[in-house]
């Protein structure tokens, strides 16, 4: 006796149905299962969608960083802390236009975060005169950002400028004297 007829006989014996009726009912059950399960979310719907690969901006100055303040929707939202530039585009509700922390976007926010300040004059990478406690607060922010956001570049001082609050001396060759900018 072949396997086929053994299976058919067993189906009839166990279910009391003819093999044709059994397979029609089985096929209908599969169709109904697929329709009903399609109405619910599967585990893959709860998995985080793969993030777009962040764009590396490399070494840029504090003023170049300003272009990433959310005014151009095609550009990522960037914030620098202690010179490291983070892509914070995933938290658009905080840092996008109109977001509660959008004043930090496109800036090195180190000083403001260290001092827990929203003052525009504190939106700078200049850490001069900060207390040990404020520097500790800044370190906590830095760890939070490292954990949450990708680093996409570094803030570098503009050539011959006083960005980052650094004093730069420019040699004026004609008059042979130093001018402090
Ligand atoms: C009344 C005082 C404040 C309240 C009630 C408050 C509340 C919050 C809340 C609820 C969040 C969201 C937390 C989360 O979902 O991860 C948040 C995030 C944040 N807060 Fe505040 N905040 C306050 C003051 C400040 C100050 C003074 C600063 C800095 C100057 C600041 C900077 C931030 C930043 C940068 C984030 C976003 C962090 C991230 O990207 O995950 N906050 N705040």
Automatic annotation (TrEMBL):
Compartmental location: Endoplasmic reticulum
Domain of life: Eukaryota
Region (Disordered): 157-181
Transmembrane annotation, as ranges: 20-42
Keyword Membrane in annotation: yes
Basic and acidic residues: compositionally biased ranges: 164-181
Start and end residues of each Cytochrome b5 heme-binding domain: 60-156
Family: Belongs to the cytochrome b5 family. MAPR subfamily.
Pfam family, one: Cyt-b5
Designated name of the protein: Cytochrome b5 heme-binding domain-containing protein
Species per Swiss-Prot/TrEMBL record: Hibiscus sabdariffa (roselle)
Annotated keywords: Endoplasmic reticulum, Heme, Iron, Lipid-binding, Membrane, Metal-binding, Steroid-binding, Transmembrane, Transmembrane helix
């Amino acid at each position: 006796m072949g396997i086929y007829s053994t299976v058919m006989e067993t189906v009839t014996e166990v279910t009391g149905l003819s093999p044709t009726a059994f397979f029609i009912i089985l096929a209908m059950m599969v169709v109904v299962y697929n329709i009903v399960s399609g109405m619910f979310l599967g585990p893959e719907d709860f998995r985080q969608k793969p993030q777009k690969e962040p764009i590396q901006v490399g070494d840029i100055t504090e003023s170049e960083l300003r272009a990433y303040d959310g005014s151009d929707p095609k550009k990522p939202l960037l914030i620098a802390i202690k010179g490291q530039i983070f892509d914070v585009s995933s938290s658009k509700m905080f840092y996008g236009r109109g977001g509660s922390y959008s004043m930090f976007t496109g800036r090195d926010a180190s000083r403001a975060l260290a001092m827990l300040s929203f003052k525009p004059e504190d939106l700078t990478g200049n850490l001069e005169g900060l207390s040990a406690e404020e520097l500790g607060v800044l370190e906590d922010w830095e760890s939070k950002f490292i954990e949450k956001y990708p680093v996409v570049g570094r803030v570098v001082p503009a050539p011959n400028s006083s960005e980052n609050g650094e004093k730069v001396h420019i040699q004026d060759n004609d008059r042979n004297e130093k001018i402090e900018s």
